[in-house]
Structures are given as structure tokens and as C-alpha cells.
Amino acid sequence: MAYTIPKGLFDILPQTKEEWRTASRWQYLENILHAAAADYGFKEIRTPIFEKTELFVRSVGESSDIVSKEMYTFPDKKGRSMTLRPEGTAPVIRAYIEEQLHQISGESKFYYIGPMFRYDRPQAGRYRQFHQFGAEAIGVGTPEQDVEMIDFLCEIFRRLGLKNLTVHINSVGDAETREVYREKLAEFLEPHKGSLSEDSKARLEKNVLRILDSKDLDDQKLLEGAPSLLDFLSLEAKTHFERVQTLLKLLGIPFVVDPNLVRGLDYYTHTVFEVMSDKLGAQNTIGAGGRYDGLLATLGGPALPSCGFATGLERVLHTMESEGSSFPPPRNPDLFLIPMGEKALEACLNKGTYLRHQGWSVEIELSGKKIQYGLKRANELHAKFCAVVGERELASQQIEVKEMALHTASAVNWNDLETFLKMRRSL
């Protein structure tokens, strides 16, 4: 029986025809993310892949699509409900509270990279196991923190060479704002209840703001005539949002105020934002986030303001591929040694090990097969140099080092091999 990977998953491989799944591209992307995070003062945090289910129900919202439709939830052997993490913010906040990190500093900046899980319809850039980079800033409630996060996300994409991106922003206000707006939105939708999708009918009773995030086309058409949340912002929320816009202009970050932008998680307050690409089709959001000032207190922690974002690595790689972005070439062997005979094998193992310890990439043909097989492998691995080592070479201490791409050869003393490699690297 041949086993196949479950639907909505994929392998990341050393080589593959789908280049976005090539491991070297993932490593390049992850290196850019780690470096950018360090430049913005964020420290890495790693949380478990699964958590207690109630963490996500409480934080993300019971009526959200994530909780009601998409989570991978299972009982453990004692019957306790566990869930593969569908998003990264709630686990970070749980860890922050549980580890009492607020006692170390009232202001903290974290980032994470790792797999998330949602039972969703697989499509370009959207998978059932997907990978996110996310950043969370805890302890600062000012508009300046919102703008730093937006700039951080945009800078990542700039370093990756992405173009044709649009920043969309909105304010979902504070508690006062949403209390007033809930009533106005419900008043508008109630006469049209029969035209709503089944999900939106349920949300009209449980959490009317959720309807704004509906993907149903008929719902979206109906919402075109709905009152705008921006018209109901409290003075504090309006001042906060205006300051965000002023600072974005100051930093030269173009943006669009999008009144229909509502993030699909219950915990957001004030500023929400998305960065969109024209290369991803219907699923065009490449990164998104916002402020969530009440989440820590909701989960039993201190009442500290927070702001964050996440970007999907798959979507980033698909976008880079669509735009023809350049990637650094994968590292290939500096030297490929082909030993002929047992003594030569020992000598090559000894020399190769030494060179590897000095930071050189060395491949040794260990199979004992013929020279042509070794040369073929050296070509396949795109080795820069290749040398055949046998009894004659060991006796004379002279080897012929071939530069594969140029089809040239140089006579090199066995003891001067590293010196030769250094000289050729400097050319």
C-alpha cells in the first residue's frame, strides 16, 4: 500500500518542482524574519503546538469561523479537550500570563515562527497546516505602537523585495464604540434577516459584529448599505485612529482607510490593518493584525494594552514566486572527494572532516563505486571542485582538483588543499 499525505498538507523538500516548497527558500525567508525581528527589538518565543481548547474559545471567540468550523480539536487520554493551535496570539498571551513575564518588564516584544492548523478548504496560499510569523508588543497602548507594528510588517516585505502591496487600515473602536455600533448594526440588519446566510442569522443573535466578516456574497452586498463603524467612534477612539494616520504619513507608508475591514477575531480593539497583494487572487491578504487591549485581562492576566500581527509564510512565498523575486542560491559543496580504495577513503574522511570543521562544505563519495558515479554525483550536487584520490595521489601527495563549472584542473599538494580553496574563494 502506498501512503499519501493528507489533503491540505505539503512537504518541504531539498529539491522540488514547486520551488516555493524548496527548503532553501524557507530558510532564506526565516533568516530575513529573524533578522528583522532583532532590528525592531523583538525576542523569540516558542509555545506548544496544542493547547487546552478553552484558550481559543475564550480568546478567539465562540462564534468565530475559527472556533465554530476550523479547529482541530481532540480529547486526550483523560478526556480533556485539546486543540492544535489555529493562531499564535492566544498561546503567546497565555505564556506571558502563566510565566508572569509582566514582573520582568511592563513592556515586552515577542515574535514566533511555527505551524498552525485549521480545517479549511485548501487553495493557493491556504493550507490545513500552515506556517506563521507573528509579532506581539505588550504594555504600550499608544498609536505609535500601532504604527511601529505596521512599519515592521511592511519592512519585512520590503526586505523580501515584494511590490504591488497595499496597506488597509480601520478602527474597530473601543468598548464604548462597539456597544453603540452593535445596536445600530442590528437595527439595520433585523429587517433583512431573511436574506442573511445561515451563519449570519445565528450571528445576528450571538455577535452581530461577526456579520461584517462574512464571506457570503449576498451578505457582503447587503452590508454595502450598513452604517459605518467609523461614524460611531468615541472621541478617544477617533483621536487614536487619526494619530495613526498622521504617523503613517510621517513615515511615508501609503495606506487606504477601509471601513469594511474587520479582523476575524473577537479580541481586536482600535486599529486593525491588513497588507494585501494583487498576486494571490481571492485570498489576497499577505499579513494582518491590530490592537487587542483587553485580551490579557480576559485571559486572567494584567490589564495591559497589546498590539500584534501575523503573516503566513506560504502566502509570502507564493507572492514572491508570482513576482519573480530573487532568492540566494542554495549552498553547494565547496569540494567533492572521490576516494579509490580503503586507504584513500580513510585519507578523504580525515581531510574532509578537518575541512568541515573549518567551515568548508565537503562531500565524500562513501559508496566505493566507480569514478564516473562519483563525478556524476558531484555534478548533480553542483560541487565547485572535485578531486579523485587513489594510491598514486597518496604516494605523491599531489591531486588534480577539477573546477566543475569551468572544466579546468589544477595540481594541488594534498597538504595545501585548504590554502588552494581559500585562494580560489578570494578570486
Overall description:
- The protein has 2 domains: 211 residues, Bira Bifunctional Protein, Domain 2 (BirA Bifunctional Protein, domain 2), CATH 3.30.930; 92 residues, Anticodon-binding domain (Rossmann fold, 3-Layer(aba) Sandwich), CATH 3.40.50.
- It is elongated.
- The two termini are 53 Å apart.
- Helices cover 38% and strands 21% of the residues.
- Strand 3 and strand 4 form a beta hairpin.
- The protein is α+β, with helices and mostly antiparallel strands and 427 residues long.
- The chain is built from 15 helices and 16 strands.
- The protein has an 8-stranded mixed β-sheet with strand order 1-5-6-11-10-9-7-8. A 5-stranded mixed β-sheet has the order 13-12-14-15-16, sandwiched between helices.
Give a short account of the largest sheet. 8 strands, mixed
Backbone shape: elongated
SS summary, helix count: 15
**Helical amount:** 25-40%
CATH class of the largest domain: Alpha Beta
Class from secondary-structure proportions: alpha+beta
How many structural domains in the coordinates? 2
Strand order in the largest sheet: 1-5-6-11-10-9-7-8
The name of the CATH superfamily of the largest domain reads: Bira Bifunctional Protein, Domain 2
Short description:
This protein has 427 residues and is of the alpha+beta class. It has helices spanning 23-39, 53-60, 65-70, 89-98, 143-159, 175-189, 198-206, 217-223, 235-250, 295-298, 313-323, 342-357, 371-380, 391-396, 417-426; strands spanning 43-44, 50-52, 73-75, 81-84, 108-117, 129-138, 165-171, 256-257, 269-277, 285-291, 306-312, 335-339, 362-364, 385-389, 398-403, 408-413.
